[in-house]
C-alpha cells in the first residue's frame, strides 16, 4: 500500500491535452469526422431513397475503398517523405471541394435536370475522390499524432484521439439524420439533403482552419532507394511482426463480415420503419457506446493484458451484430448497436496503442499505409460485402451471417496466438516477442 514516503503516482488523465499541437490535432479530427459522418449518413439514406437498391448502397463503400486501397502504400511513402501539415491542407481542400460538388448536385433545381444514373455517377465519383484523399490522410495524421506528444503518453493520447472521433461520430449522424428529416419543417422549401450538406461544408472549413494552426512536421525519413524497395520495407515490417499482422487481420475480417452500417438505411426504412431521424439515432447509438466506453478507459486502461482483451472485445462485437440482426424492436436494436460500439472501441484503443509503440519513427507513414489497407478501408469493403450479401441472402440473414463469421475469425485467431493472451503491454514490447 502507498504511504506518506512513497505515495501512489498521480494519474493525469489530461496529460496528452496539455500539448498545444495535440489539441489542434484533436480539434481538426473532431470537426472533420463530424462533417464526414453527417455526409456519410445522409448520402446512404439519399441514395437508398433514390434507388431502393441494396446494391446501390454497396457501391458507396466500393467507390471509396478502391482508390483508398489502390494507392494506400504510395500515400504512406509520400507521408514519410514530405511535410505533413502541407499535405493535410491539400487533402482537406480536396475533400471540401468534393463535398461542394455533391452539395450542388443534390440541389432540387439541379437534381431535377439530371437522370438518376447521372446523379449516382457524380456522387460515386466524388466518394471515390474522398477515398483518394483518405489514402494520404491516414498516414499523415498517424505521423502528426506520434510527434505531437511524448511516447510515454501514447496510451492516453490514443484514448483521447479515439474518444474525440467517437463523440463526433455520435453527434454527426444524429445531427445529419435530424436535419435531413426536419429541415423542411423548420424552413419551408429547404430540403434535408441541402441543409445537411451546407452544415457539412461549414464544419469541413473549420477543420481546414485547425490544420492551418498546426506547426510544420518535416519528414523524418528521406528515402534514397527506389520507391518499390521502400514500400516493400514497410510491408515486410508489418508481415514479420506477428502481433501487428494478427491485429490488423482480426480487424479486417471482423469488420468485413460484421459491419452493418451500410444496411442501416434498409433497417430504418423497411424493417424498423423509423425514417431518417431513426437512422441518425441508430448511427449514433454505436458511437455513443464507443465514446462512453472510451471515457471509462481513460481511467481504467485495457492494456494490462492487451491481446486477451482484444480477442474478448472482437468476440463481443460479433455477438452484438447477431443480436442486432435478430431484433425487430427499435430500442432493442439500439442496445445491440450500443454494445457493438462499446466492444469496438476497446479493440480500437488496444490496436492503436500497439501500432504506435511497435512502429519506428522512420516507418510511420508506410506502416500506417499498410494499416489503412487492412483497417482503414475494411469498413467500406465490408459495406460492399453487406450490400451484396443482403441482395442474395436477405437483409437479416446477411447480418447474422456476418456476426457468425466474426466469431469464427476470433476463434481461429485465438488458436493461432494462445501464447500472447497472458502477456502485459511491457512484455509485448520486449524484443523478439512480436516476431
Q: Brief overview, please?
A:
By secondary structure, this protein is mostly helical. Helices cover 78% and strands 0% of the residues.
Question: Helix and strand layout, with pairings?
Answer:
Elements: H1 20-51, H2 54-70, H3 72-81, H4 84-105, H5 108-111, H6 116-148, H7 154-186, H8 192-212, H9 227-239, H10 242-258, H11 264-271, H12 275-299, H13 306-326, H14 330-358, H15 364-376, H16 378-393, H17 395-416, H18 425-429
Structural commentary:
Keywords: Cell membrane, Membrane, Transmembrane, Transmembrane helix, Transport. The chain crosses the membrane at residues 30-49, 55-75, 87-112, 118-146, 167-187, 193-214, 243-268, 280-298, 310-339, 392-415. It is found in: Cell membrane. This is Multidrug efflux pump Tap. The chain has 435 residues and is mainly α. Helix content is 78%, strand content 0%. It is built from 18 helices and no strands. The two termini are 37 Å apart. Residues 1-9 have low confidence and may be disordered.
Amino acid at each position: 500500500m502507498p504511504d506518506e514516503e512513497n505515495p501512489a503516482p498521480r494519474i493525469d488523465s489530461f496529460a496528452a491535452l496539455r500539448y498545444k499541437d495535440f489539441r489542434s490535432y484533436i480539434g481538426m479530427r473532431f470537426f472533420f469526422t463530424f462533417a464526414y459522418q453527417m455526409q456519410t449518413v445522409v448520402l446512404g439514406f439519399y441514395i437508398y431513397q433514390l434507388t431502393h437498391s441494396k446494391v446501390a448502397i454497396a457501391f458507396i463503400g466500393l467507390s471509396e475503398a478502391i482508390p483508398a486501397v489502390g494507392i494506400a502504400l504510395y500515400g504512406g511513402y509520400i507521408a514519410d517523405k514530405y511535410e505533413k501539415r502541407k499535405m493535410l491542407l491539400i487533402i482537406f481542400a480536396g475533400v471540401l471541394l468534393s463535398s461542394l460538388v455533391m452539395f450542388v448536385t443534390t440541389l432540387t433545381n439541379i437534381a431535377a435536370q439530371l437522370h438518376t444514373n447521372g446523379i449516382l455517377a457524380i456522387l460515386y465519383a466524388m466518394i471515390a475522390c474522398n477515398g483518394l484523399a483518405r489514402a494520404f490522410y491516414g498516414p499523415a495524421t498517424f505521423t502528426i499524432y506520434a510527434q505531437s506528444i511524448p511516447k510515454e503518453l501514447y496510451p492516453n493520447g490514443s484514448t483521447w484521439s479515439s474518444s474525440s472521433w467517437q463523440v463526433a461520430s455520435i453527434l454527426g449522424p444524429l445531427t445529419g439524420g435530424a436535419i435531413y428529416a426536419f429541415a423542411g419543417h423548420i424552413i419551408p422549401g429547404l430540403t434535408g439533403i441541402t441543409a445537411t450538406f451546407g452544415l457539412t461544408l461549414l464544419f469541413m472549413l473549420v477543420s481546414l482552419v485547425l490544420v492551418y494552426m498546426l506547426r510544420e512536421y518535416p519528414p523524418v525519413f528521406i528515402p534514397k532507394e527506389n520507391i518499390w524497395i521502400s514500400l516493400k520495407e514497410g510491408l515486410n515490417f508489418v508481415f514479420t511482426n506477428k502481433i501487428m499482422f494478427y491485429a490488423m487481420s482480426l480487424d479486417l475480417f471482423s469488420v468485413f463480415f460484421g459491419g452493418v452500417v451500410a444496411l442501416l438505411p434498409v433497417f430504418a426504412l423497411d424493417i424498423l420503419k423509423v425514417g431518417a431521424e431513426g437512422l441518425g439515432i441508430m448511427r449514433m447509438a454505436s458511437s455513443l457506446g464507443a465514446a462512453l466506453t472510451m471515457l471509462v478507459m481513460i481511467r481504467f486502461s485495457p492494456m494490462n493484458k492487451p491481446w486477451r482483451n482484444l480477442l474478448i472485445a472482437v468476440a463481443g462485437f460479433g455477438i452484438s451484430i447477431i443480436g442486432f440482426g435478430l431484433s425487430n424492436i427499435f430500442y432493442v436494436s439500439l442496445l445491440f448497436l450500443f454494445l457493438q460500439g462499446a466492444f469496438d472501441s476497446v479493440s480500437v484503443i488496444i490496436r492503436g496503442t500497439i501500432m504506435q509503440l511497435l512502429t519506428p519513427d522512420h516507418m510511420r507513414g508506410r506502416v500506417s499505409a499498410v494499416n489503412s489497407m487492412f483497417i482503414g478501408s475494411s469498413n467500406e469493403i465490408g459495406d460492399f460485402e453487406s450490400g451484396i450479401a443482403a441482395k442474395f441472402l436477405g437483409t437479416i440473414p446477411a447480418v447474422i451471417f456476418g456476426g457468425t463469421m466474426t466469431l469464427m475469425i476470433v476463434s481461429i485467431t485465438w488458436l493461432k496466438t494462445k501464447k500472447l493472451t497472458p502477456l502485459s503491454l511491457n512484455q509485448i514490447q520486449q524484443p523478439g516477442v512480436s516476431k
